[in-house]
Amino acid sequence: MTRRQFSGETVAKVLIDNGYYPVDRTGSHLQLRYEHPETGEVRTVTVPMHDEIATGTLRDIADRCGALDFDAFCAWIERNS
After folding, report:
1. What DSSP string runs through the chain?
2. Angle, CA 56 vertex, CA 75 and CA 1 arms, to 5°
3. pLDDT tens, residue order, the chain (81 aa)
4. What is the pTM of this model?
């Protein structure tokens, strides 16, 4: 079974390593942005920089990143962390 508990730092690092870039930080929340190089599609994701991100919040991050399968997204985070 795929791990579903990650820190905000881990999730943010993986997203930044894969084309997202920080645009704002408010308190303990980091806002990241991704612009698709071919279509120009823009995705904005807010990552709470907590020791452990709640599963529902992680699922919302996966949705905002365009993931079609939550377990595959978690496996991808784990592989790239």
Report:
1. -------HHHHHHHHHHTT-EEEEEETTEEEEEEE-TTT--EEEEEEE--SS--HHHHHHHHHHTT-S-HHHHHHHHHHH-
2. 30
3. 678 899 999 999 999 999 999 999 999 999 999 999 999 999 999 999 999 999 999 999 999 999 999 999 999 999 999
4. 0.92
- At 36, the amino acid letter reads H
**Tokens representing residue 53 in the block:** 């991100």
Q: Which domains does the chain have, with CATH numbers?
A: 8-80 (3.30.920.30)
- Structure tokens, 61: 């991050």
Amino acid at 8: G
